[in-house]
Automatic annotation (TrEMBL):
Transmembrane segments: 17-36, 56-76, 83-102, 108-130, 142-161, 173-191, 211-230, 242-267, 279-297, 303-323, 344-363, 369-390
Lineage of the species this protein comes from: Bacteria, Pseudomonadati, Pseudomonadota, Gammaproteobacteria, Oceanospirillales
SUPFAM superfamilies: MFS general substrate transporter (SSF103473)
Membrane topology, record value: Multi-pass membrane protein
Record's protein name: MFS-type drug efflux transporter P55
């Protein structure tokens, strides 16, 4: 397709494909998280390191994404977003379903790690294409739609994964074949924007705001450490309360993911009302409050309340961190910039349980470790509030976006 025939701005069909493609990434972890106890029981006799490897089968993809996403961004800029996205979606489906056919835990962990590499390419390319296809408020709407879709799909498949896991730990993995349905729409409605972008780029837009990138990357990394405490640690806390059903575990954590939908829906109004900086303070305070309520919950109802409050904050996190990062980039660097953002996002997910484990070794209790993370979150919220108070309300390079003007 020649440059002359490229659409000047994408429409709903492209947006739907990219939003659905983005939602694949949440399926990578939440859909199979409820089956960790069954995975441990299955391989306890044959694998002495089962207590380490079983959780790694769930969180391992996050490490793979964190490592591979910068390379995925470079490939997206060099080879082309559309081609890499289609190839990655095929790999996602095949590698995602592979553990259902494997019979040893080490092979499952390796398959999940490779699966994470395909996730990195999918997320990076989808987000880069959103940045390429739209500008201004339309871009913000699709960023928000991306987060809403991830929340909906995450909540749905967390419950589905838990229910299917009641019968067999293998069954949820077959759901990863569903993204094959997206391949043909990707081929038909998406186009490669790079050739046109190189012509349309003005000297002003060739500059990159490095400070905004660092701030956005740090925010998403730290925020995901707090965010991922719920899906990883809630099952352990529920078992301590005597709740061992994978269905109930899936429903509880799925409620948090569904609550993140509320946060994402509220984000445009909150952002316009209090601005990016104060929204950062709010989302960190909500997540920290949810964690404190979670460790003090004495019943299933208390757990549901805690994960919902936490989830609302988590729903504000990604769009509020991503918007300044997108505005700091130019089109030629969108792939690499989004690769860095994706890397920090999933690095935060991966190190979250490691941070909890380290704090447990210091404090001796899981609840104390989570409480320390919550206090760090509250401290960060205060810093953002102080920054919002003292910063000029005009253009502030690290954080001001076109949406705030």
């Amino acid at each position: 397709m020649s440059n002359a025939h490229l659409p000047r701005e994408a429409g709903r069909s492209q947006g739907s494909v990219l939003v659905l493609g983005s939602s694949l990434t949440i399926m990578g972890s939440v859909m199979v998280a409820p089956i960790i106890p069954k995975l441990i029981a299955e391989f306890a006799a044959s694998e002495p390191r089962v207590e380490v490897l079983a959780p790694l089968a769930i969180t391992g993809p996050a490490l793979a994404i964190a490592i591979f996403a910068p390379l995925a961004g470079w490939l997206a800029d060099s080879v082309g977003r559309k081609l890499i996205l289609i190839f990655a979606t095929l790999l996602y489906a095949l590698l995602g379903a592979a553990p259902a056919l494997l019979n040893d835990l080490q092979s499952i962990v390796i398959a999940r790690f490779l699966f994470g590499c395909s996730e990195a390419m999918v997320m990076t390319c989808c987000t880069a294409l959103i940045a390429d296809y739209w500008q201004g408020e339309r871009r913000l709407r699709y960023i928000n739609a991306q987060v809403i879709s991830i929340a909906l799909v995450g909540a749905l498949f967390f419950v589905i994964g838990g229910a299917l896991g009641e019968q067999s730990w293998r069954t949820p993995f077959y759901l990863y074949l569903l993204p094959l349905l997206l391949v043909i729409p990707m081929m038909k409605v998406l186009w490669e924007p790079l050739a046109r972008s190189e012509q349309d780029e003005t000297p002003d837009r060739q500059r990159i705001d490095g400070v905004a990138l660092v701030v956005g990357y740090a925010l998403i990394l730290g925020g995901m450490v707090l965010s991922f405490v719920v899906p990883v640690q809630t099952p352990r806390l529920m078992v301590q309360l005597g709740i061992a059903s994978s269905t109930l575990i899936g429903m509880a954590t799925g409620a948090g993911l569904l609550a993140s939908l509320l946060g994402a829906l509220a984000w445009p109004l909150i952002r316009k009302t209090i601005g990016i900086k104060c929204t950062n303070a709010l989302l960190l305070a909500l997540m920290s409050s949810g964690l404190l309520l979670l460790i003090n919950a004495g019943s299933l109802t208390g757990i549901f309340i805690a994960v919902v409050i936490h989830g609302v904050g988590a729903g504000l996190l990604v769009p509020n961190a991503l918007t300044p990062v997108m505005n700091a980039l130019n089109k030629r660097q969108n792939g690499r910039g989004m690769g860095g953002f994706t890397s920090c996002l999933y690095l935060g997910q991966f190190v979250s349980p490691l941070c909890v484990a380290f704090l447990v070794s210091m404090t001796g209790m899981l609840t104390h470790a989570i409480a320390m993370l919550a206090l760090i979150g509250f401290g960060s919220a205060v810093i953002w509030l102080l920054y919002a108070f003292f910063a000029k309300q005009s253009d502030t390079p690290p954080l001001t976006t076109t949406a705030d003007k």
